[in-house]
Design goal:
Mean pLDDT: 88
Strand content: 5-15%
Order of helices and strands: EEEEHHHHHHHHHHH
Largest sheet: 2 strands, antiparallel
CATH superfamily of the largest domain: Alpha-helical ferredoxin
Distance between the termini: 38 Å
Structural class: mainly alpha
Strand order of the largest sheet: 1-4
CATH topology of the largest domain: Fumarate Reductase Iron-sulfur Protein, Chain B, domain 2
CATH architecture of the largest domain: Orthogonal Bundle
Bound molecules: iron/sulfur cluster
């Protein structure tokens, strides 16, 4: 697979001589640049399979490195280092250590799906970004992201009751991420809602805070979901060779 716009040359492997004259010609600085050799010995041969086994990563093998995803990417337009095509290349090559150099920016994907619409091979690059961020967390390379914490709280409520109580989701999220509930934007939003919402709706919302809504006869659905989720977790566990799932469940 070709490497288009970002090479695997690390800055420390680029060497320049401040002052160098060869055969009477001054080749100081940039003109004397050479690359010291580097052997990559840390391949993870299972890496593509590991990402493909997580939700969203299923079609990574289809990528033909055209670069349309990176070209369309919202975040790449702001930061050249955010490069889905390049990360897919590294994953397919099993170059785990190289991918880890960018571990602190991969989570920045905003799920706009521009890449997904641009991809001619239906790779679902947005899904691959999510799977990669999840993989980094499961392997303990990065802490759990706020969006992952939110997703977990949200899912837990749906699994338990078959319904969502927005206030509870927000309270749990703020508590889990160490944020104050009295965020300025949240206070203005709530005040705005109180002013505009019909009284009946407000009463229902208020009651939902004390009496959590739940879908009737949810027990069977809940048992089936629990079984599926546990099956998927064990699958991920086996696939990534983890002794203990990093999400603590
Ligand atoms: S979904 Fe993520 S990777 Fe795709 S274009 Fe948007 S920000 Fe970029
Ligand atoms: S647009 Fe699709 S095929 Fe092209 S590099 Fe991105 S993921 Fe690969």
């Amino acid at each position: 697979m070709p490497i288009h716009e970002k090479s695997l040359i690390r800055p420390e492997n680029l060497v320049e001589q401040d002052e160098l004259v060869v055969d009477g010609i001054d080749v100081s600085g940039h003109w004397s640049t050479f690359i010291t050799s580097r052997a990559v010995t840390d391949y993870n041969e299972k890496m593509q399979d590991e990402i493909a086994g997580l939700a969203g990563g299923e079609f990574i093998h289809r990528c033909w490195q055209c670069g349309s995803c990176t070209n369309a990417c919202t975040i790449n337009a702001l930061n050249n280092d955010f490069n889905p095509r390049y990360w897919i290349y590294l994953i397919r090559m099993g170059m785990e250590e190289e991918l880890l150099l960018d571990k602190d920016i991969i989570w920045q994907c905003v799920s706009c799906n521009k890449c997904t619409y641009a991809c001619p091979r239906d790779v679902n690059p947005e899904g691959v970004m999510k799977a990669t961020a999840h993989w980094l967390e499961l392997k303990g390379h990065t802490p759990k992201s706020p969006s992952m914490i939110f997703d977990e709280g949200f899912s837990e409520q749906v699994f338990k009751t078959g319904k969502i109580e927005d206030g509870l989701v927000l309270r749990q999220f703020f508590a889990a991420t160490g944020q104050k509930l009295t965020q300025t934007w949240l206070v203005s939003m709530v005040v705005g809602l109180i002013k505009r919402m019909p009284l009946t709706m407000l009463t229902r919302l208020g009651l939902a805070t004390f009496f959590r809504p739940r879908t009737s006869n949810w027990g069977a659905a809940r048992a089936a979901i629990d079984e599926y989720v546990s099956e998927k977790r064990n699958e991920n566990h086996r696939l990534l060779g983890l002794d203990k799932m990093e999400d603590g469940r």
